[in-house]
Structure formats: structure tokens, C-alpha cells
Design goal:
The protein has 23 helices and 23 strands. A hairpin with a 2-residue loop joins strand 2 and strand 3. The structure holds thiamine diphosphate (TPP) and magnesium ion. The site of magnesium ion has 8 residues, from helix 18.
Length: 620
């Protein structure tokens, strides 16, 4: 047997380099390289291997959590056909990645995590940053990755790689199983050598299949659709990952079935497709939410039905409503007691369209949905272009960016009040033009994620829209973007704190407790003094970005034009008025309110909550 005498770390990098994926006859390397931060727990192992194999690109991030965000965003933009590995040292470097792992797993995005771990040989324990437990030595902080990983393993001997690495690839490339895969790497084992079979390092192609729907279930789905009077399709992230947008457009066009889009599924249809009702659920449009309320059949395509999509199970009020779920994952397909069509979204839509040829929704229903699409667009126009003075409203900023951006440009975001406004208001013209991380809605994803998107699609302009809160939580990867020569356009909306949680705080009767960046007031003892004087422009400039401050919409437009000409990452800082909120549209979100309280505002909010929660349904 031919062997190669390599360290565990060298073997991992050599193996990763060789992994290819293939779908629809297109083949590409699965890993674009390795992101991360070295420490004593990895520098002599994975660090040495990366130095030795420079063709496997190493990118020096500034925070381990951010590494995973970069990888997840890169994978999302690549429809899960590519990703990065993320390396960290042991201890805090490793646990910094736990949040990123949760984000990836919840959003079903492939990322490979390589946290360093405590010595397998144990003789020098406790080592720096080791968590000790009196009851066991078979535990480290890396066990914290278990609930947030779809595959988890610890490599205690070099030869264990032969079993672990193929499993890692199986999970990462599975459209149903994918998420974070974690290989904990004891720092001594990383450096230990083994005569690996040369075969381990040969090119391997992981085929991404397009499973067809099972015949009997498909026939029943066709029956259910034909019997429906008010069907609605819900397009989730699976539509985009499967590149089913054209199939969906043809299906909607031919049948007249209207479509609501989840955060992950937005862009499945262009905003002006007549059957597109736009965003559905808590952050949805009146168009989608009205049709959802009455729908007698919901066809969920690649959606996991989060509470934002189902308006906490209040969105679908027709007593007879039933569900057909098309999903690569059996787990999601069975939700809401649906007819579970476990299949690839594109394959299923094409098959369904063929089977339904000639069938259409009632003409009045079709016309109503099309009218709603137009009415909604008027509402968008109103919010985009209603001048409200200075500070400007968030909707006006979104309008200005949307008006300026080209169809293939990408807007991205993750947390705060922006995701809701973007979900409702962004006019998406390209299937990959809208990128929201709203599975974990993780503050701090924005700048790091922007970097991942731009690396996946260098030919598109990437607009990172970020609140001041998210920016303060993690903007460090702007320095990495500068370092890598990757250009982002960041629009930083400064409303002096948490507009989103501020709105929620008011709605639940908490006033604005703990949601504004206010100085501690010596007189009152509370956080109700003047605004904390944070200079966001100086902050961004210090990371090496080009910075433009804007006050009003004409300023913003000229800043966007300047930013487009820049080759370096550019941050546009604009103050927005947190009180000028876009309204909600006929939906509701379950945030439980205190059952008893001394405050009358809380008691009032509780009453409204109890009444609204009565609409929550079980679909059994
Ligand atoms: C890591 C993390 N911590 C806390 C939250 C809860 N949270 C959601 S939005 C938000 C405030 C975001 O503030 P900002 O970025 O300024 O956006 P704004 O609400 O002002 O639009 C908070 C604290 C979260 N989503 N993620
Ligand atoms: Mg804010």
C-alpha cells in the first residue's frame, strides 16, 4: 500500500484540498480555504500545515466567531456548494466559534470547524485554558459544540481521520443534514505523524443529487392542489439553494398559485412577478398575510416554518387548511402534519408543473393576488419616498439603497429592525440579491457575512446594512476585508441603540428600559442621560475603511455613488430616527408578557397578548 507520512494536521488540509462537489454536471472544489486565528492550540499543527500547503488559502480573521460567519455567508451565497474550514486555538478561541456553529446549523449551512483541544496524552494537564472537571478527564470546552453541530468528533489518534473525514463530508454535502461539522483536534495529536494511505488524498467527488418526489405522494399532492380553491406557496431558502427559482416562476405563472417568501426564500421570485405576494409572516406584506389567512392549501417549499413565517402559528386561519411540504429534509417535510414530499425543490416543482398542466386557480383568485402584488408595491413606493426630514427614516434609507443598487447587487443583514423592513420593502430582482441571516438573527454577522458574500460573488456589489448595535458588537472583519482587498459597501444606521428591541420594549410595557445608548445620569441614577458620544465614522476609519458621513437622502445618494467608485471597503454612516417606524402588516409575533405586574402598561399589554395568542393553532 502506498502511504504518505504526514501529521494529522497536514493530512486534514491535504484531504480538504481534494474534495469536490458536483451538481447538474458542474464540478467545483468544496473548500475555498481556511479562516481563523492561531494560538498555541493550533499554530504548530493546522498552522504549520497551512504554511506548508499555501494553495489552500489561509485568511486571517479577527474573531473566531466571525470566521464562522464568513464561512456561513460564503456557503449561503454559494447555495451550499462551497464553504471554508475554520481553525481556532483551544479554550476561548474554540468557544468563540460556538455561536457561529449554532448559526450555521440553524440555517442549515455547511461549515467545517477545527477547534484545537486539550492534550490527548494528558500527562501535562491541566494545560493553559483547560476546563477541568473533577468527575471526568474525557471532557473539554469543545463538548459545547455537540448540540450545535450536525457532526461532532474528537480526533484522539491520527488514524481516526480515516473514519472521521468521510463522515464530515457526507454531512456537509447532504442537503438534508448539513450544518456545522466539528472536528476537535487535541494540540498534540495535530502534530503527530502517521503513514496515511495515499488514497485518502486522491480527488473525491461528492455528488449532490436531485431526488424526485415519490410517485404516490406526488399523485396525492396533485389531487390536493386540484381540489384547492385558495392555494398559497411559501418559498423558503430551499428554493434558492436548489436553484429552483425559474421552476417556481414557471409553476406560479402556469397555475396562478401566489407565492409568499420567507426571509431565507426572498428573491425566489422577482418582486414584480405578478404571483409574488412578497414577504410572509410577522415581517410580511399585507398581500401575503391576507392570502395566508384564508388559504385552504399551503405548499411549503424548502421552508422550516419558523415562527416569523407562521406568525407564531396564527398566519393560517382557514379551519380547513392543509399543507404539502416539499423539502430535502424529511424533518421539515413532516411539519404541520403535511403531505411530506421529500424531494429536491427544483425536481419536485418541475414534476408538479407537468402533472398540473392545464389546471389553474380560479380566475378571481388569481386576479386578487395580482392586484395585491401591485397594491403592495405602491405601499413600498410610499415608504421609500415619503420625506420625513432629518434624521431620516430607515425606510427612506432602504429606498435610496434599493433605487441605487443594480439588480445583481446583494443587500445583506442579520439583526435589529432592518431585517423586518428589508423583508417587507426590499425590491429583489435577482435570486441571490437578498441575503438575510434570520435563522439565528445574530448581531455581528453583518460585516463578517458581507465579507463571505463578496468572496463568493466578487462580481457583485455587496451592501451590508447594519445597525449601530450590531456594528458595536462586531465590526472587526472590516479590517480583514481591507487586508484581503475585498470591497464592501457598509451602510451603518445610527439610531442610538436598539430600535427593534426598543419597539418591543414599548409594546410589552417596558418603556425604553435598557435599549438606548444613553449615559448614566447622575441625577436619576438611570441610563437616561445624553446619547453616548460614539463616533462611528472615526471607528470605521480606524479599521482602514473609506468613510463617508451622510445626513439626509441626497447626501446618502451621493455617498452611494462615491462608494461605487471606491475599490476599498467603504462605510457610509447615517443617523436615522428610531421613532419613524414602518408599520407591521396584519400579523403577530408571540412574545409572552408578564402575567402580573405593578405597571399598568404591562397589564394592558398582557391583556392584548392573551387575546392574540388565542389565534395560535395546532396543525394535527
Ligand atoms: C448576538 C445577539 N444578541 C442579542 C440579540 C437581541 N437583539 C436583536 S436586535 C437587537 C438590537 C440591535 O440593535 P441595532 O443593530 O442598533 O439595530 P436596531 O434595532 O437599532 O435597528 C438585539 C439586542 C441578537 N439578535 N443577537
Ligand atoms: Mg440601532
Amino acid at each position: 500500500m502506498k502511504t504518505q507520512h504526514l501529521t494529522t494536521a497536514q493530512a486534514i488540509i491535504r484531504f480538504l484540498e481534494q474534495q469536490q462537489v458536483e451538481r447538474d454536471g458542474r464540478r467545483q472544489p468544496f473548500f475555498a480555504g481556511c479562516l481563523g486565528i492561531f494560538g498555541h492550540g493550533c499554530i504548530a499543527g493546522i498552522g504549520q500545515a497551512l504554511l506548508q500547503y499555501p494553495q489552500f488559502r489561509y485568511i486571517h480573521t479577527k474573531n473566531e466567531q466571525a470566521s464562522v460567519h464568513v464561512a456561513a455567508a460564503f456557503a449561503k451565497m454559494s447555495n451550499r456548494l462551497r464553504t471554508f474550514a475554520c481553525v481556532s486555538s483551544i479554550g476561548p478561541g474554540a468557544t468563540n466559534m460556538v455561536t457561529g456553529a449554532a448559526l450555521a446549523t440553524i440555517n442549515r449551512l455547511p461549515v467545517l470547524l477545527l477547534p484545537g483541544d486539550i492534550f490527548a496524552r494528558r500527562n501535562v494537564s491541566p494545560v493553559l485554558q483547560q476546563l477541568e472537571q473533577p468527575y471526568s478527564q474525557d471532557i473539554s470546552v469543545n463538548d459545547a459544540f455537540k448540540p450545535v453541530s450536525r457532526y461532532w468528533d474528537r480526533i484522539n489518534r491520527p488514524d481516526q481521520l480515516m473514519n472521521a473525514l468521510p463522515e464530515v463530508m457526507r454531512v456537509l454535502t447532504s442537503q438534508a443534514e448539513t450544518g456545522a461539522a466539528t472536528l476537535a483536534l487535541p494540540q498534540d495529536v495535530q502534530t503527530e505523524a502517521f503513514p496515511y494511505p495515499a488514497e485518502l488524498f486522491e480527488e473525491r467527488v461528492w455528488y449532490i443529487p436531485r431526488p424526485e418526489p415519490e410517485k404516490a405522494l406526488l399523485a396525492r399532492a396533485v389531487e390536493w392542489i386540484r381540489a384547492s380553491k385558495k392555494p398559497l406557496a411559501v418559498a423558503g431558502g430551499g428554493v434558492l439553494y436548489s436553484e429552483a427559482h425559474k421552476a417556481l416562476a414557471a409553476f406560479a405563472q402556469a397555475t396562478g398559485i401566489p407565492v409568499g417568501e420567507t426571509q431565507a426564500g426572498k428573491g425566489s421570485l422577482p418582486y414584480d412577478h405578478p404571483q409574488n405576494l412578497g414577504a410572509i409572516g410577522v415581517t410580511g406584506t399585507f398581500a401575503a398575510n391576507r392570502i395566508a389567512r384564508e388559504a385552504d392549501l399551503v405548499i411549503g417549499i424548502g421552508t422550516r416554518y419558523s415562527d416569523f413565517t407562521t406568525a407564531s402559528k396564527t398566519a393560517f386561519q382557514n379551519p380547513k387548511v392543509r399543507f404539502i411540504n416539499i423539502n430535502a429534509a424529511e424533518f421539515d417535510a413532516f411539519k404541520h402534519s403535511a403531505l411530506p414530499v421529500v424531494a429536491d425543490a427544483r425536481a419536485a416543482l418541475e414534476t408538479l408543473a407537468r402533472a398540473l398542466r392545464g389546471w389553474r386557480v380560479p380566475e378571481t383568485y388569481r386576479r386578487r393576488a395580482e392586484a395585491l402584488n401591485r397594491q403592495w408595491d405602491h405601499e413600498v413606493d410610499r415608504l421609500y419616498h415619503t420625506p420625513g426630514g432629518v434624521p431620516v427614516s430607515q425606510a427612506e434609507v432602504i429606498g435610496a439603497v434599493n433605487d441605487f443598487a443594480r439588480p445583481r447587487d446583494v443587500v445583506m443583514c442579520a439583526a435589529g429592525s432592518l431585517p423586518g423592513d428589508l423583508h417587507r420593502l426590499w425590491r429583489t430582482r435577482d435570486p441571490k440579491g437578498y441575503h438575510l441571516e434570520y435563522g439565528y438573527s445574530c448581531m455581528g454577522y453583518e460585516v463578517a457575512g458581507g465579507l463571505g458574500i463578496k468572496m463568493a460573488a466578487p462580481d457583485r456589489e455587496v451592501y451590508v446594512m447594519v445597525g449601530d448595535g450590531s456594528w458595536l458588537m462586531m465590526s472587526s472583519e472590516l479590517a480583514t476585508a481591507v487586508q484581503e482587498g475585498v470591497k464592501l459597501t457598509v451602510v451603518l444606521l445610527d439610531n442610538h441603540g436598539f430600535q427593534s428591541i426598543g419597539g418591543l420594549s414599548q409594546a410589552i410595557g417596558n418603556g425604553h428600559f435598557g435599549v438606548r445608548y444613553k449615559l448614566r445620569n447622575a441625577k436619576t441614577g438611570h441610563l437616561d442621560g445624553a446619547n453616548v458620544p460614539i463616533d462611528f465614522a472615526a471607528n470605521a476609519r480606524s479599521l482602514g475603511a473609506h468613510v463617508i458621513s451622510a445626513r439626509d437622502i441626497p447626501d446618502l445618494k451621493s455617498a452611494l455613488a462615491q462608494a461605487r467608485k471606491q475599490t476599498t471597503s467603504t462605510v457610509i454612516v447615517i443617523e436615522t430616527d428610531g421613532e419613524k417606524r414602518a408599520p407591521g402588516y396584519e400579523s403577530w409575533w408571540d412574545v409572552p408578557i408578564s402575567e402580573v405586574s405593578e405597571l399598568s402598561a404591562v397589564r394592558k399589554a398582557r391583556k392584548e397578548f392573551v387575546a392574540a395568542a388565542r389565534k395560535e393553532r395546532f396543525f394535527l
